[in-house]
Amino acid sequence: MSVSKTILLGNVGKDPEVRTVGDSKVANFSLATSESYKNKSSERVTSTEWHNIVVWGKRAEIVEKYVKKRSTLYIEGKNKTRQWEDKEGNKRYSTDVVIEQFGGELKFVGKKQESEPKPEGQTDFNNEPTEPDETDLPF
Length: 139
Hints:
CATH class: Mainly Beta
Largest sheet: 5 strands, mixed, barrel
Number of domains: 1
Order of helices and strands: EEEEHEEE
Number of strands: 7
Mean pLDDT: 83
Strand order of the largest sheet: 1-3-4-6-5
Structural class: mainly beta
CATH architecture: Beta Barrel
Shape: globular
């Protein structure tokens, strides 16, 4: 038995792309996670990683309606690596974090913009979530 689980908390880099595959929807977007630390010179350094996120089924429909660039999300999914050949015949690889219909988590974190509707069943912790300072956003 083996387990593949990835947990991320980060900011959406651009509006998700949603399409229909068969009779199911799939959403694709990038999520930035950042780590800050002080180097030997006591200067603050921020390192940002970009993750490819793939969401299937009903959750993709939620992503289509409510997730936008700069949304802060908590995600639990599994790693899945794709392989293909480019036009020159070189092998290419991409690792995605996949959230399927009945596997994984996708939760909204932080304060919403006034114009954004709240997804059904979504509640705010203590009714006063915090919003990241825009100066801390990696994009």
